[in-house]
Specification:
By secondary structure, the chain is α+β, with helices and mostly antiparallel strands. It has two domains: about 5-245, no CATH class; about 275-424, Immunoglobulin-like (Sandwich), CATH 2.60.40. It contains twelve helices and nine strands. It has helices at about 5-20, 20-35, 40-80, 95-100, 105-150, 150-155, 160-175, 190-205, 210-220, 220-245, 310-320, 335-355; strands at about 290, 295, 300-305, 355-360, 365, 370-375, 380-390, 395-405, 410-424. The protein has a five-stranded mixed β-sheet. A four-stranded antiparallel β-sheet has the order 1-3-7-6, with no helix packed on it. A hairpin with a 6-residue loop joins strand 6 and strand 7. Helix 1 runs antiparallel to helix 3 (about 40-80), helix 5 crosses helix 7 and helix 11 packs across helix 12. The longest helix is centred in the N-terminal third of the chain and has 43 residues, at about 105-150. Keywords: Membrane, Transmembrane, Transmembrane helix.
């Protein structure tokens, strides 16, 4: 009997329990460390990558624990009856008896289960290294696209991000190794390629698991390993996106397997989300885009809060540069300082009014006074303004908020939120 099975049980069980309860922990950690409104491509990728890593470990150690549990059950039977099947007491015909005798013995089955349990443990660690290596590669790709080429519009595209994530995962798994099987050629071009591959090999962490992965591939059927690895990693990615989609809306989805009821809506009207109302937010919930104080307004004003996202920075910088916002240093004279502060306040108000647009019942409200604001309940940073509604009649109204973004030197308006409310 293997002497390490107790330790394997302890490790797998402890990791499964920790990973199963870690979802909310990581959610709180990232929301506190990196508030959703301040997410940049690095934080988003680190956030998603952490979830994928934990799901890979959870799936792998779950399979390992199941196999080891079955092995332990079989071992208990073999320990009590060490001589396998007693054919003298079996009441079957000759052909059935012969069939049983030709099958693997209980000890052989026990040994095979032990091997599969050990293999599942090793494959889990290998796949974890693959995900970790993929995160490094994806961070490098996004850094090059964002910082060197300014392609922020591309790295904010969910389709591109998921496609590149799947491609890199399969690349690190070895799906595209057939490209390297071509006959070696000499020359400067191929020497440069070898040099780049060496940087990639060590920089991405491929050296951690490459040889062990080749051991699995060369001693078994490659297509089985690659098919299993592809399904394994994509399942972990799918589960991660679905779980994050419960609270992070950008480019994610959330599939509720236990309650998939949907209201029949032939008119395709907007479905109101309670998270756009400040007084309906529960603990740990966020606006994500923004909202107002309540669905039923008894105040003489409307409190409008818009969450700041990193993508707004590019447009704000574009407007500030066009207005020469940071051209002059603060003057030394007190009288001039006051004028300086007033002028900067005016320019800041102009900048924010260009970024943010608000309509109530299709009427545009211009020259609003926006202030930077950190929401007391959600801890999100953004902008707040108060709009007088004395002139609105009693009843139902709709407020629409839009933001402006600047990608590839083009300014475009983007939908932010639509909120119905009632005035008393």
């Amino acid at each position: 009997m293997p002497a390490y099975w107790q330790l394997e049980f302890l490790i797998a069980g402890g990791i499964i329990f920790s990973l199963y309860t870690s979802t909310d922990y990581f959610k709180h950690l990232f929301l506190l460390k990196y508030p959703i409104s301040n997410f940049d491509y690095g934080q988003v990728l680190l956030f998603f990558g952490t979830y994928v890593l934990t799901r890979v470990l959870l799936i792998g150690f779950g399979l390992n624990l199941i196999l080891r549990t079955v092995w332990l059950a079989y071992f208990a039977i073999s320990y009590w009856y060490p001589h396998d099947v007693n054919y003298e007491n079996i009441n079957v015909n000759f052909y059935q008896k012969k069939n049983h005798q030709e099958q693997a013995s209980a000890k052989t089955r026990l040994l095979n289960l032990d091997k599969w349990a050990n293999l599942s443990f090793g494959i889990t660690i290998i796949f974890t290294f693959i995900v970790f290596s993929s995160i490094i590669v994806l961070l490098s790709i996004q850094f090059i696209l964002a910082e060197l080429f300014g392609a922020y519009w591309l790295i904010n595209n969910a389709v591109f991000n998921y496609t590149s994530a799947i491609f890199v995962l399969l690349l690190q798994l070895g799906i595209f190794d057939f490209i390297l099987r071509k006959k070696h050629r000499r020359g400067a071009f191929f020497k440069i390629g070898e040099w780049l591959y060496t940087i990639y090999y060590y920089g991405s962490g491929l050296f951690f698991y490459r040889r062990e992965l080749l051991v699995l591939r060369t001693n078994g059927k490659t297509w089985i390993l690659l098919s299993f690895g592809t399904a394994y990693l994509l399942t972990a990615l799918f589960i991660s996106i679905n779980q994050i989609g419960e609270f992070y809306q950008a480019g994610t989805f959330n599939i509720n397997l236990f309650d998939d009821r949907e209201t029949y809506d032939s008119s395709k009207n907007y479905v109101v989300d309670y998270k756009v109302y400040e007084d309906q937010l529960s603990k740990d919930e966020v606006f994500f885009n923004g909202g107002i104080q309540s669905a039923y307004i008894t105040d003489n004003h409307l409190k409008v809060f818009v969450v700041h996202h990193r993508k707004y920075d590019w447009y704000l910088k574009y407007v500030q540069d066009s207005l020469q916002y940071d051209t002059y240093d603060p003057p030394q004279s007190d009288s001039l300082k006051r004028l300086y502060v007033q002028e900067r306040a005016r320019l800041n108000r102009l900048v924010l009014n260009r970024l943010l647009q608000v309509e109530i019942d299709d009427i545009l409200y211009e020259d609003l006074t926006w202030d930077r604001y950190k929401h007391y309940k959600t801890k999100e940073e953004g902008y707040i303004t108060y709009i007088p509604i004395d002139t609105l009649h009693k009843g139902r109204h709709i407020i629409d908020a839009y933001t402006r973004n600047r990608f590839t030197n083009q300014v475009k308006s983007s939908y932010c939120f639509t909120v119905p409310f009632y005035v008393d």
